[in-house]
Amino acid sequence: GQSLEQPSEVTAVEGAIVQINCTYQTSGFYGLSWYQQHDGGAPTFLSYNGLDGLEETGRFSSFLSRSDSYGYLLLQELQMKDSASYFCASSGAGSYQLTFGKGTKLSVIP
Amino acid sequence: EAGVTQSPTHLIKTRGQQATLRCSPISGHTSVYWYQQALGLGLQFLLWYDEGEERNRGNFPPRFSGRQFPNYSSELNVNALELEDSALYLCASSPLNTEAFFGQGTRLTVV
């Protein structure tokens, strides 16, 4: 089976940097994804790490360390619109469905 | 290009009834995934269909079932509804790569 742990809530100031951590215990781990979900909205894909290291997409970066079963999402230059829930999700080799963490609610304050 | 579409947006049923939820994937995507998101919880994997076949199912009772049609659209059926089935049901499609595209979901309320 697979399980992922992430903090339930994080608060950060507009313009700052925030890191959301995710640790996982999975069998047949293939990669780690990150999704953003605004209240009442659909989850949208942010980033994927199939290999160890850092992936950068604009203001968002994601990191994976397979040896530590750990990853994080880094959001820079925070904007008010970044207030949302962020989910890490793992996929297994040969099975493409995602297993999600419970999500981290990010609140960006002025 | 149209995204993943789900219908209905909202559905209210009474306990014991059956609910049918529908999903149309992005054109060209053959895989459809169903997830349940109960209030305050993460997304729980329900079912995965690909090329008309059920490929995998999550830890849900058999009263959760579905099917995929030749045009790759999909239907989720929930029989003998219980109060705890109240949740947002999300459908996602994928071209079998690392990114899943989600619909806006169906909010099912069981009263």
How would you briefly describe this protein structure?
The complex is a heterodimer of chains A (110) and B (111). Helix content of chain A is 0%, strand content 65%.
Describe the protein's architecture and organization:
The complex is a heterodimer of chains A (110) and B (111). Chain A is an all-beta fold and 110 residues long. Helix content of chain A is 0%, strand content 65%. Chain A contains no helices and eleven strands. Chain A has strands at 2-5, 9-13, 18-26, 29-37, 44-49, 53-57, 60-65, 70-75, 84-92, 95-100, 104-109. In chain A, a hairpin with a 4-residue loop joins strand 7 (60-65) and strand 8 (70-75). The mean pLDDT of chain A is 92. By secondary structure, chain B is an all-beta fold. Chain B has strands spanning 5-7, 10-13, 19-24, 31-37, 43-50, 53-57, 64-68, 74-78, 87-94, 101-102, 106-110. In chain B, strands 2, 4, 5, 6, 9, 10 and 11 form a seven-stranded mixed beta sheet that branches. A four-stranded antiparallel beta sheet of chain B has the order 1-3-8-7, with no helix packed on it. In chain B, a hairpin with a 5-residue loop joins strand 4 (31-37) and strand 5. Chain B starts with a strand and ends with a strand. The chains are: A mainly beta (110), B mainly beta (111). At the A-B interface, strand 5, strand 9 and strand 10 of A face strand 4, strand 5, strand 9 and strand 10 of B.
Can you summarize the main beta sheet of chain B? 7 strands, mixed
Total of helices of chain B: 0
Helical stretch tally of chain A: 0
The portion of residues forming beta strands of chain B comes to over 45%
Mean pLDDT reading of chain A: 92
Low-confidence stretches of chain B: none
Approximately how much beta-strand content do the residues of chain A carry? over 45%
Overall outline of chain B? globular
Based on Cα principal axes, name the global outline of chain A. globular
Helix content of chain B: under 10%
Most extensive interface? A-B, 21 and 25 residues
Mean pLDDT of chain B: 93
Number of strands of chain A: 11
